[in-house]
Amino acid sequence: MSTIFAPITGPGGAVTVIRLSGPATRQITESLAGKLPKPRHAALRKLHHNRETLDTALVTVFPAPNSFTGEDCVELSLHGGRAVRNAVISALTDLGARLAEPGEFSRRAYLNNRLDLLQAEATADLIAAETAAQRRLAIDGANRLHAACASWRETLRHLIAQQEALIDFPDEDLPPEVEARLAAGIKALHAEMQTALTAAPNAERLRDGLEFVILGPPNAGKSTLLNALAGADIAIVSETPGTTRDAISVKLDLAGIPVHLTDTAGLRATADPIEAEGIRRAQARAATADLILQIDDGFQPATVSAHPTIETLHIQTKADLLADRPANAISAKTGAGLPELLARLTAIAQRLTDTSGAAALARPRQIACIRDTAEALASALANPEPELRGEDLRGAATALARLTGTIGVEAILDAVFSGFCIGK
Ligand SMILES: Nc1nc2c(ncn2[C@@H]2O[C@H](COP(=O)(O)OP(=O)(O)OP(=O)(O)O)[C@@H](O)[C@H]2O)c(=O)[nH]1
Ligand SMILES: [Mg+2]
Questions:
Q1: According to a count of CB atoms within 10 Å of the terminal CB, is the N or C end of the chain lower?
Q2: Residue 304 has what pLDDT?
Q3: What is residue 11's predicted lDDT score, i.e. its pLDDT?
Q4: For atom 1 of ligand 1, which residue has the closest CA?
Q5: Regions of the chain short of the pLDDT cut 50
Q6: Per-residue confidence (pLDDT) for residue 407, from 0 to 100
Q7: pLDDT for the residue numbered 323
């Protein structure tokens, strides 16, 4: 097993922390810093290499197995700055350590049973979280999923044991309730997983951010609305119809929920190939949106949505120019109706990401594991033949074990850990 290291702080700070993990960690650190401090006590040491002083650093040793990775670990808190970091990195390389791959520390932690796959994914999500709701999903949602998973595993273990009893003692007079209780147990577990699967798209949306797309005829005030909602001058506004060509996105934080709001080219028949490409892109964005903001300025025929299955919010713009202002109309010029629109968008965002306390399956991998488990349970229910039912229940247990990684499959591990940043 090689000894790996990586800076675990971003560049530009006053301090750079480098983490080392692996069998040669102590020896390499001693060579750099001299006598090691007591475990888990930070101590100041001069770092030397090739008779040169590299830095004065705080050194902390975390001996195996009580470390992040479960291996011997050291953290070196250096002065920030590229020269110090580069000098220490090249000294560590000289001494036989190598730069860690993305996610390699977490992968070792998983292999040493310091965390399971769900916990590893939750850590990655927490680091990537940009809004309050995403942070909560990465902490509370992941805790709920972890607890649910443990309880499902326990239930399934009992169901398998009951099924084994039915297989092993077929001729004895087992009371008929045993069979009925088993079927009811499978049904209840299946229902719990269906509930989690129903909430999954909302958890996924919260993790990835919602996609809201502004669509409508040219000159209707789409770019003006994007700028107003973003509170910044991002898209070009002009009275010339057909101004916007590229789809332009901004990130909004609606009560802690991340929303990507996209402004698009105005929809109309056009001979201009560049504008036509812009319109094609607008429709493509709308086709995968969570919400379409359908803009109408009251001066030209409203466009009919080509995306009837996607939730659509109709918005009347330029209220200041209309004699009698319709309810819900907005004016970017006077600001009328904008707070109400923001409140409606926030309510929609909350509804689309609500997981209502369900176990939050926020990744395709997690959803696939639970779907496979639920399918095996459904098959067990449809199978009264005890041996076949037993087979289905064991299949369900295997699929569920993949969720936490109790059954590790190399391909799954690669997919999970390659999504991490270096240093995690
Ligand atoms: N009076 C008034 N004018 C507005 C309002 N919103 C937008 N406008 C004007 O309408 C014109 C078009 O605005 P844009 O935001 O560029 O419209 P668009 O829908 O992005 O247009 P395209 O990019 O061409 O599709 C500009 O002159 C804006 O100043 C409004 O609420 N009131
Ligand atoms: Mg525009």
A1: N
A2: 72
A3: 86
A4: 318
A5: none
A6: 67
A7: 78
Sign of CA dihedral 39, 40, 43, 48: positive
Which of 224, 274, 296 maximizes ligand 1 atoms within 8 Å of its Cβ, making it the mutation to test the pocket?
224
Question: pLDDT value at position 172?
Answer: 63
What is the SS3 assignment for 338?
helix
Best CATH choice for the domain 122-207+363-417 from the list 1.20.120.430, 3.40.50.300, 2.30.30.30, 3.40.50.1820: 1.20.120.430
Cβ–ligand 1 contact at 224 (below 6 Å): yes
In ligand 1, which atom is closest to the CA atom of 218? 25
- In this prediction, residue 279 carries a pLDDT of 95
Does the domain at 210-352 match CATH 3.40.50.300? Answer given as: yes
- pLDDT at residue 338 in the model: 95
Structure tokens at 127: 């680091």
Among the bound ligands, the one closest to the CA of 217: 1
CATH of 4-100 given 2.60.40.2340, 2.130.10.10, 3.30.1360.120, 1.10.8.60: 3.30.1360.120
For residues 203 and 355, is the Cβ–Cβ distance under 8 A?
yes
Cα(340) to ligand 1 centroid in Å equals 20
With a 6 Å cutoff on the Cβ, whether 223 touches ligand 1 is yes
Q: What is the pLDDT of residue 142?
A: 87
Nearest-angstrom CA–CA distance, 423 and 414: 16
